[in-house]
Amino acid sequence: RILANRQSAARSKERKIKYTGELERKVQTLQTEATTLSAQLTLLQRDTSGLTTENRELKLRLQSMEEQAKLRDALNDALREEVQRLKIAAGQAPNMNGSQFNGGLQQIPSYFSQQHQRQQQQQHQQQMAYLGGHQAQRHHPNHHQSPSNGGQSLSGLSLDDSMDFI
């Protein structure tokens, strides 16, 4: 009976050592997994932060492009009106209201070109600030003189400047 008790105690001790060993291996495996998951979490948080920043920048860029499109459309409308006015002045197109000149349209391109230049400069500065110097700056002349309209161009901009809106 004493021998049976000793054998039973030895088996119990063996099971306990085996169980403890298994628990230690599980702890080691879980610690390794926790370290791996922690590193993955850090990477995902960094990626999320980067994507959030990129999303914000893209939204600003989209807003800027929408504003450019509005300016381009307004510029195109003003240029169409100026072309029509010049055609009427040159006698190439019939006048819609019966007078030889449409005085209101003569002032639109000059006013619009000044306003447009200010908006374009502000927009260019915003874009350069946004790009943070990642894009090379391009310089476009702001005026091309034309003797037919008192030294101002029809739009107040060069062809290159107009192309920025297309």
TrEMBL record:
- What SMART domains does UniProt report for this protein, alphabetically? BRLZ (SM00338)
Question: Region Disordered: what ranges?
Answer: 112-166
The reply on keyword Hydrolase is no
GO MF, one example? DNA-binding transcription factor activity
InterPro entries from the UniProt entry:
bZIP, bZIP_RF2, bZIP_sf
* Protein origin, superkingdom: Eukaryota
Q: Which PROSITE patterns match?
A: BZIP
Cellular component GO terms, alphabetically?
Answer: nucleus
> What residue stretches are annotated with the BZIP domain?
1-58
Keyword Transcription belongs to the record: yes
Q: Where mainly located?
A: nucleus
As for subcellular location, the record says:
Nucleus
Q: Which residues form a coiled coil?
A: 27-82
Per UniProt, what is one Pfam family of this protein?
Answer: bZIP_1
Q: Which UniProt keywords apply?
A: Activator, Coiled coil, DNA-binding, Nucleus, Transcription, Transcription regulation
Biased amino acid composition, Low complexity: 114-127, 146-160
What the record says about family reads: Belongs to the bZIP family.
Q: What does this protein do?
A: Transcription factor probably involved in vascular development and shoot tissue organization. Binds to the DNA sequence 5'-CCGAGTGTGCCCCTGG-3' present in the promoter region Box II of the phloem-specific rice tungro bacilliform virus (RTBV) promoter. May regulate tissue-specific expression of the RTBV promoter and virus replication.
Protein name (Swiss-Prot/TrEMBL): BZIP domain-containing protein
Q: Tell me what organism the protein belongs to.
A: Aegilops tauschii subsp. strangulata
What does the organism's lineage look like at the top? Eukaryota, Viridiplantae, Streptophyta, Embryophyta, Tracheophyta
